[in-house]
Amino acid sequence: MQDKPYRDFSSYLRALYGCRVQKITLDAGLSCPNRDGSLARGGCIYCNSRGSGTGAAARGTSISRQIEEAKEALARRYKARLFLAYFQSFSNTNAPLPRLANLYAEALSDPDVVGLSIGTRPDCVPEPVLDHLAGLARDRLIWLEYGLQSAKEETLRLINRQHGVEAFSDAVRRTRRRGLSVCAHVILGLPGETRQDMLRTAELLAESDVQAVKLHLLYVVKGTVLHDWYAQGCYRCLEREEYATLVGEFLSLLPPEMIVQRLTGDPHRDELVAPAWALEKAANLEAIHEIMRQRGLRQGSAR
C-alpha cells in the first residue's frame, strides 16, 4: 500500500504493467434499462439525462477518436504509457451482443489499451455477454463494474434502482464463475441512510467475492429528482468531514487485499448543485487521509 492506508488502483496497475496505466473514460452512446422503459423511465434519483457521460457519442465522436484524444492529454498530465478503456456512461452491456462486441473490439484495437473496464447494472449482464468478455480476458485485463450503491433494500427502492441486493449478488457469482474481476460501486450519503446502514454495505462487500470498490459521494446534479428534493429542503448533503470519516470507517471494514479504485466522485462543474466542496478532489482526498491517520484506521483494520 506504500504510504496510503488502503490498496489503491494505480499501484495495482503499475505492479501489473511496470508503468503508469491510466483509465480513459468513454461514452458509447448506450442507454439504461431504468431509463429507456425496459424497467422504468426517469432513472435513479441522482442521475440526469447524460448518465455521467461526456456527451462524446452524441457529438458523433467515435470510440477510437475518444481514446486518441484522451491518450494525448493523459500522457502529458500523468506520463501514462498504457491505458484502460473505461465504458462509463449509463449501462455498457445494454445492447445486442454484436454491437457490444464491436465497441469493445474498437477500444482494444488501440495498441496502448491493455484492457476494458465496463460500467453497468448488475441486472443487465446476460450470459452471452459475460461469455464474450471471458474470451477477451484470456489476453486482456477485463473488469466489470456493478452499481450496488447500498446494501439496504429500502434505500434501493427509494432511489429507484429497480433492482435489489440479490441481483448484485447473482451478477457477482456469474461473473466470478468466468474468472472476471468485479468492482462494486457504492454511494455514501444516500437519503435516509444512517452510519450503520452505510457500514453494513461495507460488511456485505467484505463477505462478497468482489475484487475492488469505488466509493462515491452523493452530490446533487441539475435536472434530477434529487435536485427537486434538495430544492424543497428534503435532502441534506454530507459535510466534507462527515464524508471523510465515513470513508475511513468503510475502508477499515474491507479486506486489505480488495482494491480501492475511487474514494469520491468527479462531478461536472456545470451540472453540480451541491455540495460545492465535491469539486475539491485534492482537498477531499487529503481530508480522508488525515481522518484515517488521526483515528489510526487502515483498510481492514476493523476486521
How much of the polypeptide forms β-strand, as a percent range? 15-25%
How many whole angstroms does the radius of gyration measure?
18 Å
Shape: globular
Element string (H = helix, E = strand): HEHEHEHEHHEHEEHHEEH
- Residue runs with pLDDT of under 50 for 5 or more positions: none
Look at the structure and give the mean pLDDT. Answer: 95
By DSSP, the count of extended strands is 9
Query: Main sheet, how many strands, which sense, barrel?
Result: 7 strands, parallel
Helix content: 25-40%
User: What count of domains describes the coordinates?
Assistant: 1
CATH architecture: Alpha-Beta Barrel
List keywords for this structure.
seven-stranded parallel β-sheet, two-stranded antiparallel ribbon, 10 helices, TIM Barrel, globular, 9 strands, 303 residues
Explain this structure.
With 303 residues, the protein is an alpha/beta fold. It has a single domain (9-295), classed as TIM Barrel (Alpha-Beta Barrel), CATH 3.20.20. It has 10 helices and 9 strands. The strands form 2 sheets. Strands 1-2-3-4-5-6-8 form a 7-stranded parallel beta sheet, sandwiched between helices. The chain has a two-stranded antiparallel sheet with strand order 7-9. α7 packs parallel to α9 (240-252) and α9 (240-252) crosses α10. The chain is globular and about 45 Å long.
